[in-house]
Predict the 3D structure of the following.
Amino acid sequence: MSKFHVIIPAAGSGSRMASETPKQYLPFLSGTLIEKTLSVFLTCPHIDSVSLVISADDNHWDALSIPVTQKLHVHRQGGNTRAETVLNGLRMLASASDDWVLVHDAARPGLSVALLEKLISELSDDPVGGLLAIPLADTLKRADNDQRVAHTEPRDHLWQAQTPQMFRYALLKEALENPTSHAPTDEAQAIEALGFKPKLVAGELRNLKITYPEDMALLEAVLKAD
């Protein structure tokens, strides 16, 4: 039976947060962003292992009181890009080729166990795999070099990608080791470049990625209201 492994790339600095502290270590609710992000996977019985991949010079992780266990593994193998960090995490996994790997953003702490289990349920028999995403609701404008509207983009069939993104170990490793596109921004793009079509699974607005300071207050309010 296939196992389910999680890789969380956490080697970035989060420069758009305007903070000297990497955003995954910023205070959030009763702990930090990374602690909240990890908690859903550590409590989900379907998840066999969680690999957190941090930078070699990360001096923030050791200050947290999160015990490394048989389920949680920390690797100081962060790369220069997200794709490199995820690939390094894959190489550290002792995994069968048909095991599933779920890659999740370190600064996306709003994922619920129910949404995680929905993703696993919908994709566990899928031939390709897929990702959480939400249909775009806002009108999209493409800007010119003067920050004026060049034209309006049709939003039909457009979705905003979220994570986790879930693919078979062997397929994801092949996609990241031999990319046919330059610097894929997520795992689904790397899979698409091999000619596959990942499945879109409806996510939730609460599964927001923290990118800007105002995102913190918004998501805290949403989660406190649950």
